[in-house]
Amino acid sequence: xxxxxxxxxxxxxxxxxxxxxxxxxxxxxxxxxxxxxxxxxxxxxxxxxxxxxxxxxxxxxxxxxxxxxxxxxxxxxxxxxxxxxxxxxxxxxxxxxxxxxxxxxxxxxxxxxxxxxxxxxxxxxxxxxxxxxxxxxxxxxxxxxxxxxxxxxxxxxxxxxxxxxxxxxxxxxxxxxxxxxxxxxxxxxxxxxxxxxxxxxxxxxxxxxxxxxxxxxxxxx
Length: 221
Description:
By secondary structure, this protein is of the alpha+beta class. The protein has helices spanning 3-10, 14-21, 31-45, 49-80, 84-111; strands at 128-129, 135-136, 144-150, 154-160, 163-164, 168-170, 175-180, 184-188, 194-198, 201-204, 213-217. Strand 4 and strand 5 form a beta hairpin.
């Protein structure tokens, strides 16, 4: 029998008959429809319909599982096969974002330089009278010794003796100590989020909450 003869007898399209005979199960419709095709074809050929249908379902299930594995492997390869051009573009974009963030921080801090600049009070070494009239001189502290206690989240940038040190994000409850031989310059991203001690003297909160503050130690004359 030709494919045309089978098509006339079973009313199954020749396209599907050819797919069945060549085991091209991926070309067939859903299982329920394809099983009906197999059953009609088996009846035409005088075969056991139920047995043929069961064999067909088993073979098609194996074929679909194999196809899923192949497609899964191809998908993984496609995801891993990232063009080097895309990687380079991503790296360039990341570097640009980091640079832009640093630039914006410096720009915002410089705009607040004149308005939020706070100079700590000078330290005096006048002797304090003690009971009985005896005067004991206050020991002279050399250099700059800062103790910064965080009450809120605060970004800190420090320049010690002209050398910029890595930025710090001070957490509430944390304490940061900075020491310099000649000078220390501070930029605080949240002037109301820290308390400062300078050479043992409590300066309290140096600025307003959420405002950028710049400090110099020792203070300018």
